[in-house]
Every structure is written in structure tokens, then in C-alpha cells.
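Pipeline run #58 for the internal structure catalog. This entry was flagged by the ingest filter as a single-chain record with no existing model, so it goes straight to prediction. Upstream metadata was stripped on purpose; only the residue string is passed forward. Reviewer on rotation: M.T. Logging verbosity set to normal.
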Amino acid sequence: MKKWMISIVIFSLVFIISIPLVNNYSARKVEKQLVEIALPDDTEMVESLSKAGKLVGNGNGMQYFGGVLIRSEKSLEELSAYYADKVTGAVVKEQKTQMITWIEHEDLSFETPVADTEGYYIVYLFGNGISPFSYLDIRGH
């Protein structure tokens, strides 16, 4: 009986520890999806990042964010059209600072200094997690 209880305790601890790890992995998969898209001409990838947690909006629930910082000679409209053809739900916005300012509940920023000039863009996407991990992570509440 004692071995049974020890096994239950160990399993429970491993499961609890795995919750944020699995959710971070889900966010990295979203980032990887964007990184693997071929870049348009006259465009370079500067940096990529991912984040799991409650990032925007109200209520409970995990969100899985992946983003890439690109530098391009193309316009916002051209880049938006390009990425719309490559992946459903991808959004392209101009990026004027290192901070991703529209993320409401976390401080999220690129490591690369972004000049307040034209040519820097963020391409981002929200993805899905794995049940039951997506419901049990305290970061989503």
C-alpha cells in the first residue's frame, strides 16, 4: 500500500510540473510554424518568440502566441497578403519598438533593438494547446 501511495504522489508531482512545460511547447509550435514559412523577397527574419499564458482579453483561458520580427522593403499590405496566402490567422503589423505593446497581461518584447523607422514588422499567430494542460495552467486564469 505504501508503494502505491508513493507512486500516486510521484505521478501527481510530475503531472503538475509538466503543465507549464507542455503549454510552453504548444506556444513554441506556433512560433515554429511561422519561422518555417519562406520569407518574401527583400525580407529578412530578425528574431522569433513565443509565449503561453493569458495575453489579451478578459476571462480565463490559455493563449498560445508565436511571432516573428522581420525587416522588409515591402509594404504592410504586401506582407499581409503574402502571409494570408501562407497561413490562416496570421497577422502582420508594423513594429516601432522592441515591446509588443498590444499584449495586455504580460511584458513581451524582442531582444533586438527596433529603430523607430519603417521596415520592421511583426508577423504573429495564436494557436491551440493540448487538453487537459490548457485548462490546468494557472497562467491562464
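catalog note: The mean pLDDT is 93.
catalog note: The CA atoms of residues 43 and 72 lie 4 Å apart.
status: ready for reviewer M.T.
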